[in-house]
Design a protein that fits this description.
Elements lengths: L3 H54 L2 H10 L23
Length: 92
């Protein structure tokens, strides 16, 4: 009986220390999860903004403005446009 009490007391102390360690690690993991959730939300917002920006810049009006303004391009005259038909296609 004399040997059992110190063993139980030692087991209790080790168990309590393990509990403290596990709870500490759990709090650290929860804080990291919260930080990653916030980062994910920020990235989702930025991705949505980038999709809107891509959609805006891909509008034909913006493309035409950039082609005529910055690149000094013009539309070809209708007589100079040649349409090619692929083999097997019916030409209209």
């Amino acid at each position: 009986m004399r040997l059992l009490v110190p063993i139980l007391a030692g087991t209790l102390v080790v168990s309590a220390m393990a509990l403290v360690l596990v709870r500490y690690e759990s709090r650290l993991a929860f804080a990291e999860l919260h930080r990653l959730d916030t980062r994910r939300d920020d990235l989702n917002v930025e991705y949505g903004r980038l999709l809107l920006e891509r959609a805006t810049w891909s509008l034909s009006q913006h493309v035409e403005e950039a082609a005529s303004g910055r690149l000094d391009m013009t539309r070809p005259v209708e007589e100079s446009v040649v349409t090619l038909a692929l083999p097997g296609e019916v030409s209209q």
